[in-house]
Fold:
Amino acid sequence: MPSRAAAAASGRIEVLGNHTDYNGGLVLVAPTPLRVEVAGERSDDGRIRLHSERLGRSVEVERETFDPLTGEDTWANYFLGAVEAMEQLGVVFSGLDVRISGDLPLGAGLASSAALGVATVRFLAALHGVEIAPRDVATIVQAAENDFAGVPCGPLDPLSCASLPDGASWAFLDFGPRETEIELLPAPAGLRLLVFDSGARHDLAAGDYARRRSECEAAAAAFGVAKLGALTLGAFEQKVTEIDPLLARRAWHIVTENARVGFVRGVLRNAIPPAMLGEYLGLSHLSSLDYFENSSPEQDHLVEHLMLLPGVLGARLTGGGFGGAVLALVEEAVVDSVTEKAEVPRIV
Ligand code: GLA
Structure:
């Protein structure tokens, strides 16, 4: 078994399909070359030492007794959660000395936490001399995020970070009971995805995300389906007058967002000219704003601002929401001018 190892994982761009993943729905994602790197070696002293170059912070815990960290050290939980999950699979080390680096920005809506989890699982597997299939990596990482880090995120980010091939293709993911393979789709020619930081803080552990999850569960129960991804438009219309208006709004977002993803997938796989892609991104944002209520004033302002710039086809919030990133689909020729006029930092 090697004494040192290094591994990496890339983030993902959520192109369309907001909060549909844990509802058993549809999502379109694209890879980003920005990544997290985990490198280090075993040690014999029963301690795990972790240094984040990006944050300039270090933590040290006892291997036998560590618990989730709190306050400014919570970033380390995505690593420690993966260590604990791998221990349950028999991948155990006496101690570890590890450095985390890379260019994927943290908490910016590009799945940095899941990418750290995936890079950690790959690193531990390499150090132990075992191979783990991408879907299993995703399952381990989601369990680590949910159970150890205490963040109730869905399957989208772990699966994307563990499975998306590098390159220009977009991917269609179906989280419904059909359990389909990832379907690669050609990215629309002549267009680019840009991601901007709205400046508003995004923290999935803050409670808003968890609240939306439970509202979706309550809405599914009220409509009589296992998950909102299974709710048809007809079934929605039949029951909506009996449903609490807030739950109906949440359900409407999921039903229509799935329809939008299905439409765009059809456009891409059948090579129909992508004339309306931008409109679907814009509609997704309005649905997040009005029905799912997971936008923020900073993101709304940025979306409106970007949509008015020449060559921008559409824009929407991307990722968990409540602050964080905004995505824009733009013509290649205007990438530089849009970047300049956006008035906020561009991340991708
Ligand atoms: C976060 C979560 C994902 C997904 C998105 C919203 O990125 O980690 O599981 O729910 O928000 O689509």
Q: What stands out?
A: The pocket of alpha-D-galactopyranose is lined by residues 14, 18-19, 21-22, 111, 153-154, 156-157, 319-320 (CB under 6 Å). The chain is about 40% helix and 25% strand.
